[in-house]
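Shipment paperwork, digital attachment
Item: protein structure file
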Amino acid sequence: MASKSPDKGCMILRPERARLIDILSLLFLRRSLTSYGFVETSGSTVLDLENVRADWVTAITIAIQKFLASISAPMKMLGMFLEFILNLFSLNGGIFGLLWNLIKGSLIIPDREAANFRTFIGHIDKRIDLYSSKSLIHYIPLQDIETGMSDINLLDLCMMASKIAYENAAYITNAVNEHWKMNFVGFYSCWNRFLNDNTTQAFIFCNKSQDADVIILAFRGTEPFNANDWSTDVDLSWLSMGKLGNVHMGFLKALGLQDEKDYKKGFPKEFNGDPTKQVAYYTLREELRALLKKHKNAKLVVTGHSLGGALATIFPALLAMHDQSDIMSSLYAIMTYGQPRVGDATFGSFLQSFTTSDYYRMVYRFDIVPRIPFDFPPIALFKHSGVCVYFNGWYERKIMEDAPNKNYIDPKYIPLMYWYAWVDLFKAFFIRWTAGKDYQESFVSLVYRAFGLIIPGIACHSPRDYVNGGRLSKNASKQV
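Attachment content:
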């Protein structure tokens, strides 16, 4: 493939069309990529790819996506069942409280839309309050916004916002208004026309209802039991976006892409689709424009964990593409946690050129998600950009160009990944005494860490370690 992104075109992999014989052919015969029926290309991309041989990375990606599709329904049901059981026990005060309430006839039945309902992520890390200066551990401040927020650290605020973005609207509203004493603006559940469902969630809040200093837009990330989210994360499909370069197709669809093969039709400057549907990019753009007119001195920060981090990165790029200077002039920072790759090298260069704002990408240990989709030429050419803030298992922070083991599949790292999965699990049992009671891990968190002994890097993706990484950060090589 040419090193320069084509001005127009796309590469779409359709795993649902791939057969077992196709996967075997990818592994052993390595025919031209465009000769496979599950590969679609258009525009100048056809010429770029017609002489490119399929590789084992493509085979692995397709196999993973087909497996995820096969377990999608039971995976979703398992998640709903686990969340119901976890909330049933927690809302009734544990097993003894549940039995007592059952005897009394006052059993509390979980309601998924209630403010006291927590997702699986919420049970891994129950913390809801922002970092307190009274904590036992001294916290090295990062990116403080001085005006009106001298006691709030932006790294912690964004990570907590990214974490609670997994919860329902009532939970988020309560967290922002009652626990953080800030101003909740709105929760948005947005339409993905390719999945025919509201699959993209985000929320907006300000630090004050009047004359706010900061406006935060937080996107929901990859849900643990949503096979489609995981399939999107590993997908190798991309759309050429002109000066933006090649951008991950699945993430564009989540933000409201209207056409798979033409970026100008896919993201016109003004929305021309169904007006009854909330489409993420256009809906959030107009909400932010109205807020910035009201809070003229406010700084805008866009954030997200996992898939949410990917959306938080592409969203400002679309604003820049459409010359939305009234919003872009207020953009202060992009802060993501455990974010997958979202585009090629051209996209990374575009991000650096369109704004003077700061883009920080936090990565904990061997988190699997920042290492996908693969950066493995000649087909998988996804690249990271921004400043990589890497946290090791002892929450030492390093500024790096990219995290080690960038593709997760380097054999020399396999023993280390398994070893540190054990170390993280062992550390979790004692962190309550080494760091303070705020860091005590729940039973659900410990079980989740144990799963990392099977697939190392899965447990490292937990928002808990990103919260800890900010609050326990030490030995920084550079203030970010």
